Amino acid sequence: MNFIKARNSMVENQLKPNKITDSRIFDIFNEISKEVFVKNELQNIAYSDVDINLTVNRGYLKNLHIAQLIQYAKINKEDKVLHIGGLTGYVTLILSKLSNYVVVVENDEHLLKQLKENIIKFQLTNVEIVKHDLKLGYKESSPYELIFIDCPIDNFSNKVLNQLNPNHGRLIMIEKINNDLGKGILITRNNNNYNKE
To answer: According to the model, what pLDDT value does residue 134 have?
Structure first.
C-alpha cells in the first residue's frame, strides 16, 4: 500500500471538503505516518474514514474528527497541553508539533509501552508521559492552557476543569450521547466561570 498517497488522499478528500482550514493541520496530517501507530493488520485502514479500535473500547477517532477537535482547540506554540488518553502516541505527536509542551496520560500497560516506544522513536523532547487514572487528569503539572481528550471517557471528573489555566484555558473532548453517537465539546475557563459550547 502506498501510504504517502493514502495520506494525501485523506487530506484532500476527508479534511479539506469538511471545513478544516488550518494549513498546519494539512501539513502535519500529510507528514505523520499514522500506520506506524497501529497494528500491522490495521495499517490498511489507517487513512480510511473509520474509527480504529486498539482495545475493546478505546482507539483512534476518524481522521476528520481528530482534525476537527484540533482545529477548534486553537492550539498555539505557547500552550502547555494535557493529553488525556495517549493510546500509542499518534495524536500526542500532532499536539507536540503545535504546542510548547505536552503532558500525556495513559493507564493501559500495553498502550503505555507502545506510547513510550513511539515518543522515543520520534525523538519528542517536549512530551512527558505519565501513568495515571484518565478520569482524573494530572493535577501535578497543572495549570494547562489546553486539556485535550480525543476518546470518550465515562464518569469524567469535574476536578479536571480546575486544572485549566484560569485565564481562558480550554478543554476539548468528545461527550458520549449513546454507544454510537458523540459530540465535540469545548469548555473555556475564565477565572471560576466555565463556558461550554
So the answer is: 93
Residues 6+ apart with CB under 8 A from 78: 99, 100, 145
Q: Report pLDDT for 152.
A: 74
Q: What averages of pLDDT result for each successive group of 10 residues across the chain (197 residues)?
A: 95 97 97 96 96 91 96 96 97 98 97 97 97 95 97 79 96 83 91 93
Backbone angles phi, psi at 131, to 5 degrees: -90, 120
pTM over 0.90: yes
143 upstream amide cis, omega within 30 of 0: yes
Phi, psi of 124 (to 5 degrees): -85, 110
With H, G, I as helix, E, B as strand and everything else as coil, classify residue 35: helix
- Tell me what pLDDT residue 96 has: 98
Contact criterion met (CB below 8 Å) for 86 and 106: yes
- The SS3 assignment for 68 reads helix
Q: Determine how many CB atoms are found less than 10 A away from the CB of residue 30.
A: 14
Contacts 24+ apart (CB under 8 A), 14-23: 14/49, 14/62, 14/63, 14/64, 14/67, 15/63, 15/64, 15/67, 18/64, 18/68, 20/64, 20/67, 20/68, 20/71, 21/71, 22/70, 22/71
pLDDT for residue 165:
97
Q: How many CB atoms lie within 10 A of CB 55?
A: 10
Q: In a 3-state reduction of DSSP, which class is residue 10? A: helix
User: What is the residue type of 67?
Assistant: A
